[in-house]
Amino acid sequence: MNFTQFIGSFKTGDASWEESPVLFERIHIAKNIIKGIYSNKRTIKAPEYLTDFGLRKTDSPRIFIKEYCKKLDKQMPSVLEVKKELLELDIRDLGDWINGVVLVLGDYDSSYEVLKERMADVLKEFTVDNLIKMATLCGIENDASTALKLFNQAHTKCTDRETKEVILHRIDVTLLKREKNIDEFFKHSNSLITDINLSNDLGEIAALLNNLVAFQLILSNQENHHNNLILARLLLANGKIILNNAINKFTHINMKLTELVRYYSQIAINQVQIEIELNNIDIAKKIMLQDVEMVHKYNDEYLSEALSSLAYIYYIDKQYDQAVNTALSAIDEHIKIGNVIGINETKKLVTASFYKMGEEEKAKQILKTIKSDPIGILENYDKYYI
Questions:
Q1: For 323-373, what is each residue's pLDDT tens digit?
Q2: Using N-to-C axis directions, what is the helix angle for 203-219 and 161-177, rounded to 10°?
Q3: How does 288-321 read in b/e, with b if 16+ C-beta sit within 10 Å?
Q4: Alpha-carbon separation of residue 38 from 113, 133, 338 (angstroms)
Q5: Which of 101, 265, 327, 372 is 20 to 30 A from 39 (CA-CA)?
């Protein structure tokens, strides 16, 4: 069974699968892709896994569809047949199909293998948007050289200044996180800073650079670790100010605003990690409460992650009842977007909190659901609120 046949097995009007908002949206996006209808319009139920600027692979989509196939007694498509189908596609369709395969099946590996086999045509035919996504896929697969080649091709083809800056930022991320070429990272960052100064427009790219350099400082020489944390702390605070000013200029919610809030939230989470290491728990809590408010207002896609981080802060501050309730709210948000990894990692936090409170029976019940209800569709988690 290939991807087309698998998606075709989900019949319109069948409540057994359409009752899940997450599955419904993902399958309908895939149905449109198969029909040649390509659109970037998605809700939080169908995350753009191939725009993750942290270059992280997640097992969430794979586990999600696998669990639903068990529930619906459906056969998963064959990896070999899906790969064969992708290899035979018109090259102009390949990028959108890969995006769909990763969204529905979580199959990064086969998608990457096909991409490598068709690389010559990909470089010639892909749009800027798809080149960026495929470069991200290569970064996720730890192929820094191919990722950089695709990012550079996207930059060459691109005519929009803001998009070009985003591409340059992604190159910096790849140099730092995947190629681990620190000298080249700083050389490239220096060129980007020069371009920013010449344009007289700081924009969000300066905030993203602050975040990246802070990340490098945290990972660098352990002999100066405390000093590096302090400097990273300053850089992240500056980045937050830049983004906050940019966010406050908007009078209505649009794609650009939600993207800025995405960056804001990532910086906030990095700030919290530093404040916890410096034992500034109250500051960490304040930062994350502000972040929860920000993402709830403008970009719910990141609410689950923000709530999980806040729950963890409550846990280490020994506010176990707050940790439980906030983590349960986070689980609810993770379920809404099909984030299986987030669901079950947060369940561990609820379990630990209940144990700390002496509620061993509740702790055991939650712990069991990691295996019995990994996608959060069977258990009523509301009953665990304190």
A1: 999 999 999 999 999 999 999 999 999 999 999 999 999 999 999 999 999
A2: 0
A3: beebbebbeebbbbbbbbbbbbbbbbbbeeebbe
A4: 22, 14, 22
A5: 265
Structure tokens at 356: 């700390």
Q: What is the distance between the terminal CA atoms of the chain, rounded to a whole angstrom?
A: 47
The Cα–Cα gap between 344 and 304 comes to 12
Q: Which two tokens stand for residue 37?
A: 């209808």
Give the angle subtended at the CA of 261 by the CAs of 256 and 266, to the nearest 5°: 130
Long-range contacts of 324-333 (CB under 8 A, 24+ apart): 324/350, 324/353, 324/354, 324/357, 324/384, 324/385, 324/386, 325/385, 325/386, 327/353, 328/381, 328/382, 328/384, 328/385, 330/304, 331/376, 331/381, 332/381, 333/300, 333/303, 333/304, 333/307
User: What is the pTM for the complete model shown?
Assistant: 0.91
For the chain, the domains span 202-297, 299-386
With CA atoms as reference, report the closest residue to 213 among 190, 247, 245: 190
In terms of Cβ atoms closer than 10 Å to its own Cβ (0-12, 13-18, 19+), residue 384 is buried
Report how far residue 199's alpha carbon sits from residue 154's, in angstroms, rounded to the nearest whole number. Answer: 21
3-state secondary structure of 27: helix
Question: Which of 60, 71, 56, 54 has the alpha carbon at shortest distance from 10?
Answer: 71
Are 55 and 139 spatial neighbours (Cβ–Cβ below 8 Å)? yes
- Assigned token pair, 148: 């950089």
| Residue carrying the six token digits 């605070």 | 237
Contact present, 173 and 54 (Cβ < 8 Å): yes
Q: Which amino acid is at 366?
A: I
Inter-residue contact 55 to 140 (CB < 8 Å): yes
Q: Report how far Cα 217 is from the mean position of its chain's Cα atoms.
A: 23
pLDDT band at 198 (very low <50, low <70, confident <90, very high): low
